[in-house]
TrEMBL record:
This is Putative TetR family transcriptional regulator. Residues 30-49 bind DNA. Residues 7-67 form the HTH tetR-type domain. The keyword DNA-binding applies. It comes from Mobilicoccus pelagius NBRC 104925. Keywords: DNA-binding, Transcription, Transcription regulation. It comes from the Bacteria. GO terms for molecular function: DNA-binding transcription factor activity; transcription cis-regulatory region binding.
Length: 217
C-alpha cells in the first residue's frame, strides 16, 4: 500500500474528527474513536498530532473551508456589480451553505464552549478564522479599506457578532423565514453603517470617487 503523505493524513484525521463529532458530539471524539473512523492506528494519530488538543485546533482552523469556495464563486459571478449586489450575493451564499449543514454549525458552538473550559486556543483559532475570512471578503471581495479610525477588522467583528447570533437562534427554532428576514436586516444595517463611514472618511471603497464611494442604502 502506498505511503500517505503526512499532510494528507492530517487532513483525513481532521475530516474524521469533524464527521464523528457532528454525528455523536464532541465528547465522543476520543483519539481512539477518531483513529477508528479514519481507519488508522493510534500511532498514526499521535505521529500527526502531538495531542488531542492539537488535532482539535486543526479542526478549528479548517472549519470554514467548505464555505470559502462557494462565496468566492458567488463574488466572481457579480464581479462587475455594485458593492451592495456583491455583499448580498456573498451573504446569501454564505447563509445557504451554512444552513445546509446544521450539524457542522452546531459543532462550531460545541467546539467553542468546550475549548473555553480549557485553554481556549481552539475557540480563538475558530473565531480568528471567521474574522480572517470576513475581513478578506470585505477587502478583496468588496473593495472596502479601513482607516485608523475604523478598521476592516472592526467591521468584520461586527458582522461576525450579528451572524453568529442569527445562526444560534436558527439552530434553536429552525425558522427559515424569520432568520432570513433578520439576516437581510443585519446586512442592511451594515451597509448603512459602511455608507456613513465612507461619507465621514472613516472608510473608503476602492475604485470609487471620494464623494461617491458608496451609494446610500
Amino acid at each position: 500500500m502506498p505511503r500517505v503523505p503526512a499532510d494528507r493524513r492530517r487532513e483525513q484525521l481532521v475530516a474524521a474528527t469533524i464527521d464523528l463529532a457532528i454525528e455523536e458530539g464532541l465528547p465522543a471524539a476520543s483519539v481512539r474513536r477518531i483513529a477508528e473512523r479514519a481507519n488508522v492506528s493510534l500511532g498514526v494519530v499521535h505521529y500527526c498530532f502531538s495531542s488531542k488538543e492539537a488535532l482539535i485546533n486543526a479542526v478549528a482552523e479548517s472549519f470554514l473551508n467548505p464555505i470559502i469556495g462557494p462565496v468566492a464563486e458567488a463574488l466572481r459571478d457579480v464581479a462587475d456589480e455594485p458593492m451592495e449586489v456583491k455583499a448580498r450575493a456573498a451573504v446569501q451564499t454564505f447563509w445557504d451553505t451554512t444552513i445546509a449543514d446544521p450539524g457542522r454549525q452546531l459543532l462550531s458552538y460545541e467546539l467553542a464552549s468546550w475549548s473555553i473550559r480549557g485553554d481556549g486556543e481552539a475557540a480563538r483559532l475558530l473565531y480568528k478564522t471567521y474574522l480572517d475570512v470576513i475581513e478578506d471578503f470585505l477587502g478583496d471581495g468588496l473593495g472596502i479599506e479601513g482607516t485608523e479610525e475604523m478598521s476592516t477588522r472592526t467591521l468584520a467583528r461586527m458582522a461576525l457578532t450579528l451572524t453568529d447570533g442569527a445562526m444560534l437562534a436558527w439552530l434553536v427554532d429552525r425558522d427559515d423565514a424569520a432568520t432570513a428576514e433578520v439576516v437581510q436586516s443585519y446586512l442592511a444595517m451594515l451597509l448603512s453603517f459602511i455608507d456613513q463611514a465612507v461619507k465621514s472618511g472613516k472608510m473608503t471603497v476602492r475604485g470609487a470617487p471620494p464623494a461617491q464611494e458608496h451609494a446610500a442604502v
